[in-house]
Inverse folding.
């Protein structure tokens, strides 16, 4: 973890312990109020040192990209063919109506690009 975040977390705990409001801490440290709330909640549960250790470990390594369920891909491709090369918005509509699945348009076009050339 970079020293700046470690310092902000430590300052958050010290200021909160001194009775400073979460909103004031957030504005002074230029961090979102919800972030301050989560830090304090976790520090109360784990203690400052253990929370800093876990926070540090969580920030290491590459993030795994979210994967789309293969069944969702099949549904997107089937709807595309069934509806005679319809647009992503119609695919999005049919996915939700028929299968109760909500996918972002960007994700739908990403799925389509795996099988089709989109102009």
């Amino acid at each position: 973890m970079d020293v700046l975040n470690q310092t902000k977390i430590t300052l958050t705990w010290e200021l909160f312990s001194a009775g400073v409001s979460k909103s004031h801490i957030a504005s002074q440290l230029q961090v979102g109020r919800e972030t301050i709330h989560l830090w304090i909640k976790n520090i109360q549960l784990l203690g400052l040192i253990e929370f800093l250790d876990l926070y540090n470990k969580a920030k290491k390594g590459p993030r795994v990209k979210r994967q789309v369920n293969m069944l969702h891909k099949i549904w997107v491709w089937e709807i595309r063919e069934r509806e005679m090369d319809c647009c992503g918005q119609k695919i999005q509509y049919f996915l939700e109506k028929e299968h109760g699945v909500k996918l972002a348009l960007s994700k739908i076009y990403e799925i389509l690009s795996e099988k089709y050339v989109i102009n």
Q: What stands out?
A: DSSP finds seven helices and no strands in the chain. Residues 70-113 form one domain. The chain has two domains: 3-58, 70-113. The chain has a mean pLDDT of 90.
